[in-house]
Design brief:
With 341 residues, this protein is an alpha/beta fold. Helices cover 41% and strands 22% of the residues. Bound molecules: L-homoserine. L-homoserine binds next to helix 8.
Length: 341
């Protein structure tokens, strides 16, 4: 029985909780996987700790209507660090908000978890992009897992695809649509909507980051490019090494003109290996209508891996969403369970 503590209980944390609740029996039967959530700590929704495990349905109900701190009979008032250190959980699920400039406060949570010899599972892009090397080394030195599938394309298997399914290939390039909001905007502009209306709709649908610049100026895609550069390409690429341009300079006229020429604008994140040199960029790019990435519309994401043995392999799938991102955490938890058996 894995004991989990969740740091953050927003959309993603609740998504994982919902999956664990609904698939409890199936996961046990199919994979012999059992877990219990012993603690949750969220800056806005409160905290609850119960050594014998919290009832997930009750937790979800409290998160929606009141405060987790109202959980009957649970200890409360625990901040993230106390929860990590004192809950007795051997796996920390860190899904607090992300900050691509400092990585905080999630970076402190990551460090506390790994220092304490706990597995860390996360979808948090900021600290993973900024401190990947340090965190991987710390996890290795403590003999624990640091898994972060959901940082790139939510539960669409991007990192696991590269690590497991494409193992043995040399990956020469990864390029793709790594941000749903900007792809949604560009798709809608092609359908005749204005940039402003399309952005507003993306925000209403819940794809967009809290600060629109994170999406439209390419910061979110940049974080994913950095994570791919470091974790898949093994390159020492920092945030400031990536050439970054967002989509704010793309007009309806540009979109129309591309359409007439049999092309389509996409915000493309790219990391390319040329011998020992690895370069990375995020930029609006006009791609041919026959490119598999051109067919990917709306908030959907896609990545093309350019490999030596398999040629080009493209995956298409969700890059955000409550259940889709919650699933990325499940897949990491199942992998930890598999490795421990
Ligand atoms: N704001 C992001 C997007 C969410 O639009 O893709 C997932 O990182």
């Amino acid at each position: 029985m894995h004991k989990l503590a969740l740091i953050g209980f927003g959309v993603v944390g609740q998504g994982l909780a919902r999956i664990l609740h609904e698939k409890h029996e199936e996961l046990k039967k199919k994979y012999g996987f059992e877990c219990s959530i012993v603690a949750v700590s969220d800056l806005n929704k409160g905290s609850a700790f119960k050594a014998e495990g919290l009832d997930i349905e009750k937790l979800l109900e409290l998160a929606e209507n009141e405060s987790i701190s109202q959980y009957p009979g649970a200890e409360t008032g625990w901040d993230a660090i106390k929860t990590i250190k004192e809950s007795g959980a051997e796996t920390i699920v860190e899904v607090s908000y992300t900050d691509i400039e400092t990585g905080e406060p999630a970076y402190s949570h990551f460090n506390a978890a790994l220092e304490a010899g706990k597995h860390l599972v996360t979808t948090n892009k900021g600290p993973t992009a900024l401190f990947f090397k340090e965190l991987s080394e710390l996890a290795a030195s403590r003999g624990v897992e640091f898994r972060f599938e959901g940082t790139v394309l939510a539960g669409t298997p991007a990192l696991n695809l590269a690590e497991l399914c494409l193992a043995g290939n040399e990956i020469r390039e990864i390029r793709g649509i790594m941000n749903g909001t900007t792809n949604f905007i560009l798709t809608n502009m092609e359908l005749g909507k204005s940039y402003e209306d399309a952005l507003k709709e993306a925000q209403e649908l819940g794809y967009a980051e809290a600060v629109p610049d994170a999406d439209v100026e390419g910061w979110d895609a940049l974080a994913k490019v950095v994570i791919l550069s470091k974790s898949v390409m093994g390159a020492d690429i920092g945030v400031s090494d990536v050439d970054r341009t967002g989509i704010t300079g793309i007009s309806i006229d540009d979109v129309e003109k591309a359409k007439k020429d049999g092309k389509r604008w996409k915000l493309i994140g790219k990391v390319t290996r040329d011998g020992d040199k690895v370069t990375a960029s995020v930029a609006p790019t006009m791609i041919d209508i026959t490119d598999p990435l051109a067919a990917v519309g709306g908030a959907t994401n896609a990545l093309t891996f350019v490999t030596d043995l398999m040629g080009e392999v493209t995956i298409v799938g969700a890059g955000a969403g409550k259940i889709e991102t919650g699933f990325s955490l499940l897949v990491d938890l199942l992998e930890i369970d598999r490795r421990e058996k």
